[in-house]
Automatic annotation (TrEMBL), chain A:
<dbReference type="GO" id="GO:0000775">
    <property type="term" value="C:chromosome, centromeric region"/>
</dbReference>
<keyword id="KW-0539">Nucleus</keyword>
<dbReference type="GO" id="GO:0005634">
    <property type="term" value="C:nucleus"/>
</dbReference>
<protein>
    <recommendedName>
        <fullName>Centromere protein L</fullName>
    </recommendedName>
</protein>
<keyword id="KW-0158">Chromosome</keyword>
<comment type="similarity">
    <text>Belongs to the CENP-L/IML3 family.</text>
</comment>
<dbReference type="InterPro" id="IPR025204">
    <property type="entry name" value="CENP-L"/>
</dbReference>
<dbReference type="Pfam" id="PF13092">
    <property type="entry name" value="CENP-L"/>
</dbReference>
<keyword id="KW-0137">Centromere</keyword>
From TrEMBL, chain B:
<keyword id="KW-0539">Nucleus</keyword>
<dbReference type="GO" id="GO:0007059">
    <property type="term" value="P:chromosome segregation"/>
</dbReference>
<dbReference type="InterPro" id="IPR052011">
    <property type="entry name" value="CENP-NAC/CAD_complex"/>
</dbReference>
<dbReference type="Pfam" id="PF05238">
    <property type="entry name" value="CENP-N"/>
</dbReference>
<keyword id="KW-0137">Centromere</keyword>
<dbReference type="GO" id="GO:0005654">
    <property type="term" value="C:nucleoplasm"/>
</dbReference>
<keyword id="KW-0158">Chromosome</keyword>
<dbReference type="GO" id="GO:0000775">
    <property type="term" value="C:chromosome, centromeric region"/>
</dbReference>
<protein>
    <submittedName>
        <fullName>Centromere protein N</fullName>
    </submittedName>
</protein>
Amino acid sequence: MIISVVKTPRNSDGAQRSSYRQSYRSYVGAVSRLGLTSALTARRLNTSRRAPRAHNITDKVSPEHLAVLVKKEWQLSYVTPLFQFRHTQLKRYSQQLSAFIAAERQGVAVEVEEPQHSFKASFSVVHGMAEAEEDAETILIQVHSKHHFSRRDDPEKCVWSGWLACINGSPEYIRSLPKDFICLPLFGSSGGDPLTSSVKSWFQQTFDCCFGSLEINHTSLQWLGSLWTNCQPESNIQHLKMIWAVPVVPPLQITYTVNPQDAWELWTCVRKDAQVEKEGEEEEEEEEEGIIDIEEVNMFMQELKSHFYRHFKLDLSAGNLVQVSTALGSAKTSGRIKISNSRYMISTLTLLTECALLKMPV
Amino acid sequence: MGDTPRRLLQRLIRRIPAQELKPTLEKWGRLSQAQLQTIDFTQSKWALTGKLGTICEERNWAVKHITELELIYNAHTVELLQFKEQFKSNLSELIRNVSVKIKKHTDEAVWIRIAWGDGLSQPNHFKPTYVVHYLQTPYVFVTSLNSKQKPLLSQALVLATSYHAIKDANLSGRKFTAIRDLLMRQYEQVFPRKFHSPLKERNQIVTDPHIEREQAESSANRLQMACEAFGGGKLPQLQSAVYKLETKFRGHNKSMTQREEPIRCVVKFASTNILESLRNCASSGIASTPVTPLLSSIPLKGRNYFVITDNGPGPSQTRQQN
């Protein structure tokens, strides 16, 4: 019943005018052709986004894949578009990467066909994750290891996993890419650093791409905090926890944990006020209900900060928001993310895909 | 010096543990500071007895004076012995298979190590509870105690110290000396003063002396207030402070401030030394001065766990609960 056709979107307009290094930022800037300022303003995240809807993702994505993606903390990176990556060649990639890892480990070349190495990489497609027409299907990479002394029938242990995804990536940007480039800008890895760097260098060599660290800045953290809080009526978030690092000597860390129901009530009050204001400005009633505005996010955080200030006379704005977490997931400024509930995974990954596209070098 | 006082002195010196000799002699008060300094406490007890005997002879001290010394020593040991006995017997009455070791340190602190077992199992020596009690103070410091053991220990302590009850001080930390100093107020406190000290001259190039002075004045002012709230110099090393807030919403949003129910949140401050971090917040202007009582209560009350609720119907007052 399920037609398992792997989607590797082809860019129909064969206009090969720019290199793969053309980034989302330069793309937006080039379109407006209004010079530096507009390019700079275009570097911001979207100022409004759809409220997360509970996706029945369990119907679309296999439970084995979801089990791998959920409840693990991933270190994020951005990746520039991959040259000549084919979703149909995953078996070959698996062999090549296995051999590459073995070679890097031992410092000698190993034959590709030799199946005896202790590290075995496997590529697979996570069907059902892609949202938009232009999104390439998510790729999951797992590295299993078998100890030399272990028995033949011992189960292999997964020692490293990683994925490449594009969820609701900017269609204009993806369409603007030259032929043969696949955009999977978000890379998450979990496992030992040596393996992560092996996988990265294999990708760099094979698909002529580059990786860079993806920090989650305070705006994105605020977005995540608000988007998650918005889910409270449907799915108990248990707490809204925010951690600020205050630059004093010795460094001070302030953890501010708000009751989920109270956080949600404040969020709805803030949204109601913002909606009233908006209606006063323009008469367009046809606004989609599920759209959340950056102003609402900022106001929500501001209200939480002033409640804090009224008690402790300490201005949280002097510090940096370094972590946000709820029962749905957690995100750290260092680029570590954990998704604990698959129902709202798509909206989180949409935001992170956007961050990754913005982080790419010009 | 007769035979009786000499033998009395000999016996007493033999009984007093070596490390207790100096403090006990100091308490006795008969020897001058100079005399005490001439005594080498690393000598053998036999030599010490000889030296003390000579001093007694010179001063013509008799049995009366020696018995005075004995009383001073005994009063102290009796208190410790009594505590030891009482505590051990009380605890073993409450629970079987418990192993208790008690040792007194030189600074009046009694250290107790308890390895817990129960009716069936032997005492577990890998997860002991340490208890430190300063004799003649109402404070007890306890490490790793679970809720089952807490009432047992409390009862044994209350009976042994002959206090009425034991109460949680809401203070915890990883450094024993720090929480001891906070609780017993043994750190440098700064008292409010009306006039600030004259500013020191600096070797900086002054661009505008007026602006410079004004800024320096306000920063000196902040520093003074920060020190008044948290203390000056090196501060006790406390790792965290936790506030459970159940107060009305104090932000700007109208519908939320009108809400009757309080907003529930927990705020935790953490650092390698929170008192120093908070003092730095206040002196650098990140925290407004004067420092709010919520924060200055940590050193003032010697606590680091607080429950804050609104005091009655008035929206602007908060109350710390015990």
